[in-house]
Design brief:
By secondary structure, this protein is an alpha/beta fold. The protein folds into 2 domains: 2-176, Rossmann fold, CATH 3.40.50; 189-292, Pantoate-beta-alanine ligase, C-terminal domain (Pantoate--beta-alanine Ligase, Chain: A,domain 2), CATH 3.30.1300. 35% of the residues lie in helices and 21% in strands. It is built from 10 helices and 11 strands. The chain has helices at 13-20, 38-50, 78-87, 98-101, 120-123, 127-142, 154-167, 196-201, 204-217, 223-235, and strands spanning 2-4, 7-10, 27-32, 53-58, 92-94, 146-150, 172-176, 240-248, 263-271, 274-283, 286-288. Helix 9 packs antiparallel against helix 10 (223-235). The structure holds pantoate.
Length: 294
């Protein structure tokens, strides 16, 4: 266990238990895979504003990577991550090794069945099983009162909220709006992979979502026509290869024929070799990457 300023860094479950014990409630947890950016900082600051103690995890979770996704290439920036977490007011940081999280012979996984199948799940079949399993383990290890996730990963939010309800974890999931660059590009650790030309094309995701939002604001309620609005913006960007566009219920992720009630517009696009995702959440008729709690 090490201390940097007022922050304790634990790297084993035993060290985490010792560091967690004196923390006053409510305890807020921000699970991360490191390579932190301003989007993560927004999660930690929100936790700091709402909780008496704040924990974060830095763990590149191998079980959420598919066989074709390169785990070893995932950016690792531990020194900078610790500085950011300390600056944002974290009290406890957990940096376990993979052997600690997945001991020899590991075979117990959490599967959130239907929500893991569409959208991201269609091309990443075991991804959400890996996410749900590691998040469940982090909830058990930290015993948080609140857990903070970014709206950017809307399907992950739906999966985690369902798991929390189904398994009865006694905590509240807090969803924090997506942080964006000035041109609308959602912050993501993957943006680091973009060449200058690809970076210039990447705001097409935001423009596509915006065009569907504008169509909705003009009264368009057909899910099909909202999808077409997104597709036609993407088609005009030569470096962008659309993987899916979706107009779905934010909780069940079922595709909507008619847009009524809360709505999730989402898409995945390959820009060069990099797969980017983004979404807009419409809650109670307001277009915002708004905040969901519960
Ligand atoms: O969103 C992420 O960074 C990861 O999926 C999470 C929630 C930390 C689980 O590994």
């Amino acid at each position: 266990m090490t201390r940097t300023g007022r922050m304790t860094v634990a790297s084993t479950p035993e060290e985490l238990r010792e560091a967690r014990r004196p923390c006053p409630s409510p305890f807020g947890l921000v699970p991360t895979m490191g390579a932190l950016h301003a989007g993560h900082a927004a999660l930690v600051r929100r936790a700091r504003a709402e909780c008496a103690s704040v924990g974060a995890s830095l763990f590149v979770n191998p079980t959420q990577f598919g066989p074709a996704e390169d785990l070893s290439k995932y950016p690792r920036t531990l020194g900078r991550d610790l500085e950011l977490l300390e600056a944002c007011g974290a009290d406890v940081v957990y940096t376990p090794r993979a052997e600690e999280v997945y001991p020899d012979g590991f075979q117990t996984f959490v599967t959130v069945e239907r929500l893991s199948v569409p959208l991201e799940g269609a091309s990443r079949p075991d991804h959400f099983r890996g996410v749900a399993t590691v998040v469940a383990k982090l909830f058990l290890a930290f015993a948080p009162d609140r857990a903070y996730f970014g709206q950017k990963d809307a399907q992950q939010v739906a999966v985690v909220r369902r798991m929390v309800r189904d398994l009865g974890f006694p905590l509240r999931v807090v969803v924090v709006p997506t942080v964006r660059e000035r041109d609308g590009l959602a912050l993501s650790s993957r943006n680091a992979y973009l060449s200058p030309a690809e970076r210039a094309s990447a705001p097409v995701l935001f423009r596509a979502l915006s065009s569907a939002r504008e169509a909705f604001d003009r009264g368009e309620r057909s899910g099909g026509r909202l999808r077409t609005a997104m597709r036609s913006v993407l088609a005009r960007e030569p470096l962008a290869e659309p993987l899916y566009v979706s107009v779905a219920d934010p909780e069940t992720l079922e595709e909507l024929g008619e847009a009524a009630g809360d709505l999730l517009l989402s898409l995945a696009v390959r820009v060069g070799p990099t797969r980017l995702i983004d979404n807009f959440l419409l809650e109670r008729g307001r277009w915002e990457t708004g905040i969901l709690e519960g």
